[in-house]
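Action item from last meeting closed. Structure (165 res):
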């Protein structure tokens, strides 16, 4: 009984020490759901392989693939799939399986506070690092599909985008 109680006390002290230090692993604290996983790169064709540059090791990297839409770009209605992964410094690669060749667009952002939402400034522009598949810098309005569109041939495509800070 004494040994059990001592181990329990030491275990609680260790847990308290970890919570006080504030150093839990980042992945353990991020809300990333199984349906938001990336496809295995190279597993099938066609795929869109996205290399995201200028990422820091804070929060969640979110990459979204969109189909053509005049009015629903950057909205759920035209989104094909959303991928979320723990952000790591440097560049990160994610892959999307697609059903057919055609026009697509990609938007990516680094959710620095890991709240699963793109923070915006007073003028509705992104307040967190953001990028489009065209690497076009954002002006004074949110982009339309044609600003970010690219063609994916039947064998797939690789694009490289750089987060703007």
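Sequence:
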């Amino acid at each position: 009984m004494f040994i059990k109680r001592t181990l329990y006390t030491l275990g609680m002290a260790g847990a308290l020490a970890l919570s006080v230090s504030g150093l839990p692993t980042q992945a353990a604290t991020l809300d990333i759901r199984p349906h938001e996983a990336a496809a295995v790169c190279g597993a099938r064709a066609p795929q869109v392989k996205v290399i995201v540059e200028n990422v820091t090791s804070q929060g969640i990297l979110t990459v979204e693939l969109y189909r053509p839409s005049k009015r629903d770009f950057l909205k759920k209605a035209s989104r094909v799939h959303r991928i979320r992964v723990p952000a790591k410094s440097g560049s990160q690669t994610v892959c999307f399986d697609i059903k057919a060749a055609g026009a697509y667009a990609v938007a990516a952002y680094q959710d620095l506070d890991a709240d699963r939402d793109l923070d915006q400034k007073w003028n509705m522009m992104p307040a967190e690092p953001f990028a489009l598949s065209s690497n076009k810098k954002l002006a004074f309005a949110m982009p339309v599909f044609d600003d970010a569109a690219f063609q994916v041939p039947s064998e797939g495509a690789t694009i490289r985008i750089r987060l703007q800070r």
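Note appended to the action item: The first strand starts at residue 47 and ends at 55.
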